[in-house]
Amino acid sequence: MSEKVKVTIDGITVEVDNGTTILNAARQIGGDIVPPAMCYYSKLEGSGGKCRTCIVKVTKGSEKDPRPMPKLVASCRTTVMDGMEVLNITSPEVLEARAGVVEILLINHPLDCPVCDQAGECDLQNLGYEHGLQKTRYEFERRTFERIDIGDKIQLHMNRCILCYRCVFTADQITNKRVHGILNRGDHSEISTYIQQAVDNDFSGNVIDVCPVGALTDKTFRFKNRVWFTKPVDAHRDCDHEKCNGKVTLWYKGEDVLRVTARKDQFGEVEEFICNTCRFDKKATSDWVIEQPTHIDDTSVIASNHYETLKPLHVIQPNQALQAANEIELHKTVKY
Amino acid sequence: MSRKLLLEHINVPGINTLEVYRQKGGYRAVEKALKTLTPEEIVEEVKKSGLRGRGGAGFPTGMKWSFLAKPEGVARYLVCNADESEPGTFKDRYLMTYIPHALIEGMIVSSFALGAKVSYIYVRGEMMPQIRILEKAIAEAKAAGWLGKNILGTGYDLELYVQPGGGAYICGEETALLESLEGKRGNPRIKPPFPAIAGLYGCPTVVNNVESIAAVVPIINDGGDEYAKIGIGRSTGTKLISASGNLVKPGVYEIELGLPVEEFIYSDEYCGGIANGKKLKATVAGGSSVPVLPANLTLKLANGEPRLMSYESLSEGGFATGTMMGSGGFIAFDEDQCIVRNTWNFSRFYHHESCGQCSPCREGTGWMEKVLHKIEHGHGSMDDVDLLWDIQRKIEGNTICPLGDAAAWPVASAIRHFRDEFEWHIKEPVKSQQQNYGLASYATPIEKAPVTEEK
C-alpha cells in the first residue's frame, strides 16, 4: 500500500503517501494552514490526539465515501483518504473550536511567562497570541502544585503542564526505563515520578526539549537569561555515546554557552535526541565545532536579536534597479 | 402484565444457585447453541432479533459481532462491560446480584458465537459483593461442566474470568476498559482502530454490556424472530429500567420497549406515580449523561403525541425537545427539586471522573462545576449562564471519548429547558438559598398539534 493519495486542505491539493495523517499532509504543504500541535510529536510513536488544538473539519471523507465526518477530528491522528477534503483556517467552526481549546488550556495555566524560562520558545505562548482572548473568563482560583526536582538537572513545574504526555512517550521510547508518569485523574492529574524517584538516564534531558511549555526546565539554565537575548548556533562534537551523534544547538550570551539543546526543525520538533553529557556537561566553546548560526523563523521572538540575515530595506522592494543590485542580499531572505 | 425475559424468575428462592437456575430452564441456550447451532447461525439470530446495545449507545449487537475481524491464528476476546457507574443506573448490579447465571450463560453462548476461548467480565471495583457472587457462580458452573475444557463434549473450551476494576467511571468506555484490563492507566484510546480490529492485547475484541449479553439467552431459546416481535419499530425486546428519584416505587423494572412513559411513571405495575402526592417536574430518562427534560416534554412529544420508552421515541426531536434511551437510568424529579443543584451535582461527578487525557474535558468539566457551584450558592451573574453554554459547546464533540459529550449534555439541556430557574437563582440570591423555584410551567401539558386537513 505505498500508492499516493490526494488530499485537499483549505483548497490546496497535495499528494501524499497512503497512511499519512492530515497534520503531516498539511506540513508537506507548509505555511499558515499547518494546524498547531501541542501534544503530537512526529518522532514519538503513539503521541497526539490529546490536546485537541489540531482539530480540523473534514468536509468530504474520501472519493469512495464522500460523506463529511460528523465531528471535528484531531488531524494528528486521522489518516488521509483518497480525495479527502479538509478545512482548517478557512472554517470558522474550526477556528472557534480551537480558540475554545486554547482558552481551556489556559484556564489553569499560571501565566507566569515573565518568570518562565520557556517564554519566547513556548508553544502555548505562540498559540495564545494567535488564538487566545485578551482576557480570561475564568474567575476561580487556579489549580496549583508544588515545584519538584526530578533528578539533579531537571525541575518540574506542574502548574504549567498541559499534560501532553510527550515526556512520558520520550521516556518510554528513548530511555531504558521510565520512572515518571501521570498520577491521579481529571484536572488533578500530574506528572510525577515513582515515589519522588529521580529521573536519571543518559537521555532524560530530552524531556525538556519535547515539553511544549515551561513545565520541565533545565536546572543548569534556570533564570540565567531570556531566550531572546541568547544567540543560537549550530554545533557538533564527537560524542562517544552510541545513540547520540552530538549535533546540537548552543545558546550563547556573549562568550558563554548558557545552555545546550537538541536541534529543532521548523515545527519545533527535535531532529535528533542528544545525550545528557552533551546537554548538561559540555558548556565551553572549546568542546564544540561551530557550524553556523541557527535558522530562526522571523515570526519567533528570538528573531528580534538574530543576526543570520540582514533584511533589505523596504525601498528596495518596488525598485527594479535596486533589486538587481542587491540580488545576493535578497536571495538570502528567501525562505526554503 | 408485560412479558419478562430476563427477570422472569427473579422471585424464585435460590435462583442465584445453579441448581434452581437449571430447574427453571437455565443453560438451555448453551445446550442448544453448542450442540445444534454454528457460531455464524448464532450471530445471524442475534442480528435478526434486532437487539441493540443496552449500555447506552444503542448500537445493534449483531452488527457489532459481525464486524469482529477474524484473522487466522490470533485470539479473539469477549469482554463483558460490568463497570456500571452512571448516576441513576443500577440494572446490571441487580441482574448480577440476583441471577448471576443468566450473565454466565449469555457469556458462554456469546463467546461461542465469537470464537473466544477466554472471556472477561470487567466489574466495577466498588461492586465487591457482586464480584464474589459471580466468582462463586462461575465455580459452580465450572464444576458442573458448563465452563472449562470440552464443554458438553462439543470440543469447545472457554475460560471465564472476573476482573475487578479500580472504580473509575471512565473505565466503562470500552477502550479505557481494555486498557485497564491490560493493567494500564484507564485512558480511552484514540479510535480508529476500533476494538473489533485491535482490542485487548491488540487482538480483535467485542465489548458488550451485561444486559446485552444476558439478552442473548432468550434470543437463542426462542429465536431471533420471536424476540423481534416484542417492542416497537427498531427498538426490539425488553429493557431493564432502573427507576429512581421521587417515585412511589423506585426499582429495577423490565419493560417491553414501546411502553408509554406516562404509563411507566404512573401505573401501579411500574413506578406507581410520584411520591407524597407531588407533581412531576422533570426527568432524566437514561442515566445522568442524557439531556434532562421538563415534565411536559417527558410525557408528550413536541407535537403532542405520547412519548414512548423506546430508542426512537425518546430521542424524537433531537436535543431540542428530546433526550436519549441511554443506559436506562430513569430519574424523576418532583416539584421540590432544584434543577440547578442537580445539574451542579452531575457536573461535579463528571469533573471527578474525567480521565484528564484530553484538554477540553479535563479543564472544561472543572470550570463548569465551579460556575454551577457559584450560581447554585447565590453568587452568580447573568453572564454566567451564557458562559456555561459556551463552555459546554467547546467541550461537546471535541474530546477523544464520549465522556466530554456526557458532561456537556446535562448542562446544555438544563439551560435549554430550565433557563428561567437559572436566572431566578441569579436574580434572587437570598431567596434561592431558602426555597425552591417550584414547578413553574414545566408540567404545562403540550397541546396536540392542530391537524391540518389536506384539501
Helix tally of chain A equals 8
Helix content of chain A: 10-25%
Q: Regions of chain A with pLDDT < 50 over 5+ consecutive residues? A: none
Figure out the total of helices of chain B: 19
Give the CA-based shape of chain A.
globular
CA(first)-CA(last) distance of chain A: 31 Å
Question: How many beta-strand runs of chain B?
Answer: 14
**Alpha-carbon Rg of chain B, integer:** 23 Å
Mean model confidence by pLDDT of chain A: 87
Largest interface: A-B, 34 and 29 residues
Offer a concise description of the structure.
Chain A has 336 residues and is of the alpha+beta class. Chain A has eight helices and 14 strands.
Provide a descriptive summary of the structure in words.
The complex is a heterodimer of chains A (336) and B (455). Chain A is 19% helix and 19% strand. With 336 residues, chain A is α+β, with helices and mostly antiparallel strands. In chain A, the strands form 4 sheets. Chain A has a 5-stranded mixed beta sheet, sandwiched between helices. In chain A, helix 2 (92-107) packs across helix 3 (123-131). The mean pLDDT of chain A is 87. Chain B has 455 residues and is of the alpha/beta class. Chain B contains 19 helices and 14 strands. In chain B, helix 6 packs across helix 9 (210-222), helix 15 packs antiparallel against helix 18 (403-427) and helix 16 runs antiparallel to helix 17 (382-395). The mean pLDDT of chain B is 92. The interface between A and B is medium-sized, with 34 and 29 residues.
Primary descriptors:
heterodimer; A: 336 residues; alpha+beta; four-stranded antiparallel sheet; 8 helices; 19% strand; globular; B: 455 residues; alpha/beta; five-stranded mixed sheet; 19 helices; 42% helix
Write the layout of secondary structure elements.
The complex is a heterodimer of chains A (336) and B (455).
Chain A: E1 4-9, E2 12-17, H1 22-29, E3 55-60, E4 73-74, E5 84-87, H2 92-107, H3 123-131, E6 148-149, E7 154-156, H4 166-173, E8 180-183, E9 190-193, H5 206-210, E10 216-218, E11 231-236, E12 247-253, E13 256-262, H6 276-281, E14 289-293, H7 320-325, H8 327-333
Parallel strand pairs in A: 1-5
Antiparallel strand pairs in A: 1-2, 3-4, 3-5, 6-7, 7-10, 8-9, 11-12, 11-14, 12-13
Chain B: H1 18-23, H2 28-36, H3 39-49, H4 61-66, E1 77-82, H5 91-98, H6 100-114, E2 118-123, H7 128-143, E3 148-151, E4 156-164, H8 174-181, E5 205-209, H9 210-222, H10 224-229, E6 231-232, E7 235-236, E8 238-245, E9 251-256, E10 259-260, H11 261-266, E11 280-284, E12 292-294, H12 295-299, E13 308-309, H13 311-314, H14 318-321, E14 329-334, H15 339-353, H16 359-376, H17 382-395, H18 403-427, H19 431-434
Parallel strand pairs in B: 1-2, 1-5, 2-4, 8-14
Antiparallel strand pairs in B: 3-4, 6-7, 8-9, 10-13, 11-12, 11-14
